[in-house]
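Much of our argument rests on the idea that a fold can be written as discrete symbols. In the encoding step, the backbone of a single protein was reduced to a row of integers, each denoting a local shape. This step matters because it turns folding into a mapping between discrete strings. For completeness, the protein is quoted in full, as a sequence line and a line of structure tokens:
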Amino acid sequence: MALTETKTVDQITVTENGTVLYREATRILKDDVEVSKTYHRTSLTPAQDLTGVPSNVVAICNTAWTDEVIAAYQAQVASQQQQFGA
């Protein structure tokens, strides 16, 4: 009876404002048969530090986060901060 654990990124989504959402699935296998699965979701905003992020997610971020996307996101955040007095 061998128990193994695998983690894989099974979903990556890029939103209109450049936010990257990804889901990691953690699977527990007993003799190669899945006995448990859990999910962990993470969101990344344009220009965020990608240290420790899975390489396939980093590749999507590097493609999606153009200079224009980053500038638009930062302008959106600044506008919201000004609007709400932060």
Summary: The helical segments are 55-64, 67-84. The radius of gyration is 17 Å. The chain has one domain: 3-84.
